[in-house]
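Lab channel / #folding
Pinned by the channel admin:
"Please post every new chain as: sequence first, then the structure tokens as a reply. Keep commentary short and put observations after the output so the thread stays searchable."

First post following the new format, from NK:
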Amino acid sequence: MKELELKYGCNPNQKPSRIYMEDGSDLPVQVLNGRPGYINFLDALNGWQLVSELKKATGLPAATSFKHVSPAGAAVGLPMSDVLKKIYWVDDQGELSPLACAYARARGADRMSSFGDFISLSDPCDVSTAKLIKREVSDGVIAPGYEPEALEILKSKKKGNYTVIQIDPSYRPNPVEHKQVFGVTFEQGRNELAINESLLSNVVTEKKDIPESAKRDLVVALIALKYTQSNSVAYAYDGQVIGVGAGQQSRVHCTRLAGSKADNWMLRQCPKVLDLQFVDGLSRANRDNAIDNYIGDEYMDVLAEGEWQKIFKVKPDVFTKEEKEEWKSHFDGLSIASDAFFPFSDNIERARKSRVKYVAEPGGSIRDQAVIDCCNKYGMAMAFTGIRLFHH
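Reply from TO:
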């Protein structure tokens, strides 16, 4: 197929809309079901690059959950604990394939942001993964292939209108890319820089040791940032991104936003949260929202307005600040990566509150030493990668 007509551009009034190859060659994608839109393809093609790089860097199946051209989550297919299965709402699914574990992690880390996501998978979609996708609110999926039964499961989603895209995994784009803004054409070389553990060799702090698990997490975070709208910061743990701060003008706001998501991920695993008793029939999305409100300050408003009976069978106790901090102390060794240098040590101060011990950033700021000193104060190990990962 030489070109594909889309429903519309970024907004319904932006017509006509299509994708095509400027050199007249066939598109590297095939729509197997549904009718994808402009933003669907932006998410799909960025997400495909992300998971392809994760698979290449780690050797593990990878998945990402994209929303508005940035990942809400990204992960590799490591096994999950019973607690993770419960907070990701997959504890009723039996044995999951590695690819399904990758998607459950990517979708589950920030379930509020992932609502209505576009999914990218590094490997052909199997039945185990398709069953997870079918039960979530999602716009579509891209993968290099689909098992026949998995494809039929996906085709039945959204009354038969779910978008399913297959990409040719052998496709390689032109090394020079173009885009237009206001009728002006921009040209640049593609960002082909490989991200792997070799970028973590320049450890500039007093603490030099970065364990293999943390190196993997830093690589996962850096690859995710390569396809996240800048400025961006990502927290990672146990082979998955657990908090992304994207598109903020101030880097510390990225760090705070991503840190609040990482905190939420940790607190969801607290027994006090796991034991919440929801009213019968409450959807997973509404349970997710209720949990976020319970963890945050909004729960006090719910208590004050007497609305809790619509959500919980039993009125939960307030989750105090002291209880939250005590539970977060169960986690140790989170990683944080930044797409550009940290200009001030306030980023490290915020990262410390979310149990970060390992840091990767480009370096190159006139205040690098202040950032290094702050890491040393808290016993963190920080690597200067020497690379910037802006993405626009």
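NK: Residues 271-318 form a domain with the Helix Hairpins fold (CATH 1.10.287).
TO: also worth noting, DSSP finds 14 helices and 15 strands in the chain.
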